[in-house]
Amino acid sequence: MAKTSRLPGFHKVSVQQRRTLVADVTGTEMAELEASLEGGGLEAEVADKFVENVLGTYALPFGVALNVRINSKDYVVPMVVEEPSVVAAASNAARMIRGSGGFLAEVDPPLMVSQVQLTNVRDPRAAEERILARREEILALADRAVPGLVVRGGGARDLEVRSIGAPEDEMLVVHIVVDCQDAMGANLVNGVAEAVGAHLAELAHGHVGLRILSNLCDKRKVRLRCSVAAEDLATEDMDGQRVIDGIVNASRFAELDPYRAATHNKGIMNGIDAVVIATGNDWRAVEAGAHAYAARSGRYAPLAIWRRDGERLVGTLEMPMAIGTVGGTLRVHRAARLALLLLGVPSAGELASVCAAAGLASNLAAVRALATDGIQRGHMALHARSVAIAAGAKGTAVERVAAMIVEARDITVEAAKRAIEVLRGSDVPLPSEESAGGAD
Ligand SMILES: CC(C)(COP(=O)([O-])OP(=O)([O-])OC[C@H]1O[C@@H](n2cnc3c(N)ncnc32)[C@H](O)[C@@H]1OP(=O)([O-])[O-])[C@@H](O)C(=O)NCCC(=O)NCCSC(=O)C[C@@](C)(O)CC(=O)[O-]
Ligand SMILES: NC(=O)C1=CN([C@@H]2O[C@H](COP(=O)(O)OP(=O)(O)OC[C@H]3O[C@@H](n4cnc5c(N)ncnc54)[C@H](OP(=O)(O)O)[C@@H]3O)[C@@H](O)[C@H]2O)C=CC1
């Protein structure tokens, strides 16, 4: 938890000043913050032990979203992302939501499902009965596979038997529901599946097939709600009431059309993935769970919806969030550990609510932009800086070239190259190659 996450003008100060401000409001040692970010938080030798065939490391920007308030607590939210405007957008919408008290979050217990597939079961109904009758014995066997987890208060909680497929290829699937505490839990749950698989096959008089977790973690959901006053949504050209109508219209579009729902959800995942990556979590798992959940009714749907409530806009988001604050890569990645430190080393559930808040804020910023000025104004203005760099601008010339191509409404590398030539030919001095770290 941070003293405050409302730091007006934060984006206008230098990187060093931002570090000082964040260290102060989060109570993080400056030396620790700086050391954790050095080299992206991952040395080449450590990277070589992380994955295989390593040649080096690959850096991404580590930023923070501000203004985030969840259940009356402030968070400085670490985000690792390559796309311009994502961090600004999340901070922008979180500021609007903060004006009405922030997000209200509710998180399920950290229950993951371990699947054991049973094939060639002669009498599936009888097999199901035999397995259910031995429930306690099977759960005890599952617990023995994760003794550390049981000591921490987690472990096997429930057992379900499902039958799937047509009579000619019917199979049984046994779900062992495991409380993973603060771990994401994939390895733990896979261990459980492998520990109970043979015994289940024996009870079923069948063959054991796959033994693996399910990424459709619908017992581990996060639910978020926020409400925003119309005046906080207004733009220069549009009053707040019209903006609410536009955002509700955007939500309805996503609810009715899977083509739009996919983009709507991409906007949500902009925020979520960035926090998931910053905190060293498995974003493929979170993505798989999100999209499987979005398609659960057979029709792909938006994860967040927006409605009018009198004079206010209300947003709700519900989705699975399998995320951990221990295990996985967290033990060794210094920048991921820093991310958790900045958040106040939350529980897995609290971290799930932070991810979801980053998602709902990102969604609000995007749909508000789409319902008002269009996405290009804000997004492309920030994207212009990458275009300027791609065209060869360096140092302080980056911002100047970016401003010129935004002004010209031509955010292309060609336009940026022309802007660099104009600056070269002007009286305004460009930074020297030495001070800017290269030619302008
Ligand atoms: C880009 C903004 C924020 C500008 O918005 P603005 O109104 O020009 O900003 P402002 O100068 O009035 O500042 C408002 C607040 O925004 C933040 N902010 C403002 N500028 C910065 C910055 N440079 N760096 C960091 N933070 C920034 C900051 O919090 C600031 O408050 P402060 O704390 O300063 O008082 C706005 O236009 C916006 O939110 N646009 C949405 C952009 C977006 O959604 N980008 C995601 C990429 S597009 C995409 O992938 C998804 C999409 C769109 O396809 C999804 C979908 O279709 O649903
Ligand atoms: N389909 C998928 O999504 C798959 C994902 N994965 C990967 O699995 C990894 C995540 O698995 P996960 O099981 O979380 O990671 P780990 O294998 O690292 O297991 C979690 C570890 O955290 C320890 N721990 C310490 N404190 C706690 C606590 N408070 N609560 C819970 N555990 C604690 C546990 O110790 P102890 O043993 O003493 O309990 C355990 O060793 C990710 O790297 C993911 O990419 C792997 C396979 C498939």
TrEMBL record:
<dbReference type="InterPro" id="IPR009029">
    <property type="entry name" value="HMG_CoA_Rdtase_sub-bd_dom_sf"/>
</dbReference>
<keyword id="KW-0520">NAD</keyword>
<comment type="similarity">
    <text>Belongs to the HMG-CoA reductase family.</text>
</comment>
<dbReference type="InterPro" id="IPR002202">
    <property type="entry name" value="HMG_CoA_Rdtase"/>
</dbReference>
<dbReference type="Pfam" id="PF00368">
    <property type="entry name" value="HMG-CoA_red"/>
</dbReference>
<dbReference type="InterPro" id="IPR023076">
    <property type="entry name" value="HMG_CoA_Rdtase_CS"/>
</dbReference>
<dbReference type="InterPro" id="IPR023074">
    <property type="entry name" value="HMG_CoA_Rdtase_cat_sf"/>
</dbReference>
<dbReference type="InterPro" id="IPR004553">
    <property type="entry name" value="HMG_CoA_Rdtase_bac-typ"/>
</dbReference>
<dbReference type="GO" id="GO:0140643">
    <property type="term" value="F:hydroxymethylglutaryl-CoA reductase (NADH) activity"/>
</dbReference>
<comment type="pathway">
    <text>Metabolic intermediate metabolism; (R)-mevalonate degradation; (S)-3-hydroxy-3-methylglutaryl-CoA from (R)-mevalonate: step 1/1.</text>
</comment>
<dbReference type="InterPro" id="IPR009023">
    <property type="entry name" value="HMG_CoA_Rdtase_NAD(P)-bd_sf"/>
</dbReference>
<protein>
    <recommendedName>
        <fullName>3-hydroxy-3-methylglutaryl coenzyme A reductase</fullName>
        <ecNumber>1.1.1.88</ecNumber>
    </recommendedName>
</protein>
<keyword id="KW-0560">Oxidoreductase</keyword>
